[in-house]
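Tokenised fold entry reproduced for absentees:

. . .
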Amino acid sequence: MADAASRLTALAEELLGEPLPVRIRAWDGSESGPPGAPALVIRHRRALRRLLWRPGELGLARAWVSGEIDVDGDLYEVLDRLAALLWERGADAKDSVHPVRDPKVRAFARGLLQVAGPWPPPAPPPEEVRRRTGPLHTRRRDKEAISHHYDVGNDFYELVLGPSMVYSCAYWEDGGTLEDAQRDKLDLVCRKLGLKEGDRLLDVGCGWGSMAIHAAREYGAQVTGVTLSTEQAAFARKRIAEEGLTDRIEIRVQDYRDVRDGPYDAISSIGMAEHVGTVRFREYADDLYALLRPGGRLLNHQIARRPEKDESAYRADEFIDSYVFPDGELAPVGRTVATLEEAGFEARDVEAIREHYALTLRHWVTNLERHWDAAVQATSPGRARVWRLYMAASALSFERNRIGVNQILAVRPQQGGASGMLLRARDWRTAPAG
């Protein structure tokens, strides 16, 4: 079809009722949209067929992973311009007419079909998670989900995360490098936990061992780290041996539900609870409570979503669920705190650090783009495109307060209710005896 870009722009603007904020460059060489704006490049009409057969984020994601759509210009600017249409309009439209019955949507779909052609799209890109069966968050299903995300090659993660090998929100106290900010985050966690020489620390979801190494090397803790990723465990053990800390750190490939060697003095859970799931979160809280000694502290570092007016209507992001974090679930921070307290914990501090995560993600995207060819070689073109899109979109989600991240410090009360905490706010030392 000649001038596909103009046709697509007209269809989109008729549906939206306002000018399209980006240019469209189509497979036939045509281009349309506001002069000087970044361009959404549609390399093949198959991208439109994917959107027709699977409307919404998943259809667009499949086209992106396949390389059938791309951007010409700054990726953040394109996502930011489209966010006002996709996110804010979507939020405002929740109580409006159902899309299938909306005449504008039906007209848009008919027009898109004429441009795209009637043929079905090819099979989804191979990076998509295989169809999952059985109940959510069983040990088998959780292990498969973790393997999908983390066992993609340590070389790839080294390129993205940098030398710190920390895959969670950094803490930007005084500027500096990503490595400085990740070190500051690990140290903040250790101070909140009140770690001291000889304390037993359980690091749940220990990743590549960075928290365990910092706690053992800087605070003299005896650390047990558990992960479901065999590749993470192998990498962590190698690092620990190189640091000469094998007498202080044990790394296990083990489900947190199978840890039985408490009590521990402290537990860190950094970026792991998102994998637990709503149906298992009380069990998670109960298990960690049972593993702590009275007076022991838990630091739960977890991404949170904004609460829904109707919580029963919450659905996980299709793109994230299919390509990034299978079976991952986000909960509002209030629900997380309430569940921890229902299990017996006393919540002592909640620190919101969502802006820190936006900055962290932007550094990861920069690392990926700087080492793009090596990242593609370490995984695949599709996988690298998935990570670039999800990290850039996530950075904007944190900046726009669509999602947040919080460090929740909780304590298992001692007999009589004592917490062992000092009266001064945000002084993370242990109270003196007596």
User: Anything to note?
Assistant: The mean pLDDT is 89. The CA atoms of residues 303 and 405 lie 4 Å apart. The radius of gyration is 24 Å.
